[in-house]
Amino acid sequence: MSNLHRRDFLKRTAQLGAVAGVADLAFLHNLPPLTSQQVQVPRAMVQLTPDIEPLVRLIEERPRNQVLEAVAERIAARVLEDHRIVEEVRVCVKKPEVPLRGILEAAEVEIVRAR
């Protein structure tokens, strides 16, 4: 598995897109290849708003096959924490058009949590 984090990938992709949009790319043939360690972007350079940072961290820190479960757990926990009147919560998280072999409409996780 690559050490490249999704946040870094998105930032680099955006930077490359900006360069490609305003410049001739012929000069790239003359550049030496670089390792991933040579092009690391410090986390401090990627500024996220406080409301989105926890979600980005959750996605980054979980293996891809555990993201839906983690999101469902976080939602259920927050509902039970913020709404004392709620005794039980059922959360369904669905990701449409997943890149899995076979014919699938979506990947889906459903959990039930109670006090």
Description:
Strands 1-2 form a two-stranded antiparallel ribbon. The protein is built from 3 helices and 2 strands. The model has no long low-confidence stretch (mean pLDDT 81). Helices cover 37% and strands 16% of the residues. With 115 residues, the chain is of the alpha+beta class. The radius of gyration is 20 Å and the shape is elongated.
Key traits:
single chain, 115 residues, alpha+beta, GTP Cyclohydrolase I, domain 2, 3 helices, 37% helix, 16% strand, elongated
Question: Layout of SSEs?
Answer:
Elements lengths: L5 H17 L30 H9 L5 H16 L5 E9 L9 E9 L1
Antiparallel strand pairs: 1-2
Brief write-up:
The chain is α+β, with helices and mostly antiparallel strands and 115 residues long. The protein has helices at residues 6-22, 53-61, 67-82, and strands at residues 88-96, 106-114.
Distance between the termini: 38 Å
The CATH superfamily of the largest domain turns out to be GTP cyclohydrolase I, C-terminal domain/NADPH-dependent 7-cyano-7-deazaguanine reductase, N-terminal domain
Uncertain regions: pLDDT < 50 for 5+ in a row? none
Order of helices and strands: HHHEE
Helix tally? Answer: 3
Number of strands: 2
The rounded Rg comes to 20 Å
Give the mean pLDDT.
81
In the CATH classification, which architecture of the largest domain applies? 2-Layer Sandwich
Assign the structural class, choosing from mainly alpha, mainly beta, alpha/beta, alpha+beta, or little secondary structure: alpha+beta
- Residues in helices, as a percent range: 25-40%
